[in-house]
Design brief:
The longest helix has 5 residues, at about 20-25. With about 180 residues, this protein is mainly beta. The protein has one helix at about 20-25; strands at about 25-35, 40-55, 65-75, 80-90, 95-100, 105-110, 115-120, 125-135, 140-145, 150-160, 170, 175. The strands form two sheets. It has a ten-stranded antiparallel β-sheet.
């Protein structure tokens, strides 16, 4: 279960959390809007994200978690499945070392102040990745990527999915009861 206690709001309006990994782990519904500033094309990715312990036999670090994102991407004329995989390693200070699937470092995620910004150089392109905790079950993420090869913005809203879904039964008169 995630870190759902609100300590205080930070100066940037984000809800502080004590442990970034404890907060992000679990199941999330996500909605991402993409804008390619070069072509003017836009798109949307909808799907789910899961932060879960790495499976047995995983070749990563002990105690590593996997970020798995799956859904459908509609971008310009393209519609099809899309996914992203990252590795998360909780650190003693309450931050998370985010790595690419092959183990290369990506950035450090630190939501303890309720917001975070990290940068990553990828060849000649520059990534600025921002996060803001809006509530115990709501997180925003923005990627702004600029360089000679890319110029786009991806804005994502992640909403935590409940762990248990109550059983809903429909009565003969059409009413729902739990």
């Amino acid at each position: 279960m995630g870190d759902r206690k609100q300590a205080t709001s930070s100066e940037n309006g984000g809800m502080r959390v004590t442990d970034t990994l404890a907060f992000v782990r679990g199941h999330w519904q996500l909605d991402r809007h993409l804008t390619d500033h070069r072509s003017g094309a836009g798109g949307r990715f909808t799907g789910r994200a899961v932060v879960a312990p790495a499976p047995p036999g995983h070749a990563g670090q002990p105690g590593e978690w996997c970020y798995t994102e799956d859904g459908e991407l509609r971008f310009a004329a393209h519609t099809g499945p899309a996914s992203r995989r990252l590795r998360y390693q909780g650190r003693p200070d309450g931050t998370v070392a985010v790595r690419f699937l092959d183990g290369r470092p990506f950035y450090v995620l630190d939501l303890r102040d309720g917001w975070a910004q990290a940068e990553h150089g990828c060849g000649r392109d520059h990534y600025v990745i921002s996060h803001r905790v809006l509530a115990a079950d709501l997180l925003e993420e923005e990627w702004r990527v600029r360089g000679p090869d890319k110029d786009y913005r991806a804005f994502t809203r992640l909403a935590r999915k409940p762990l248990h879904h109550p059983r809903i039964h429909r009565t003969m008169d059409g009413n729902n009861v739990t």
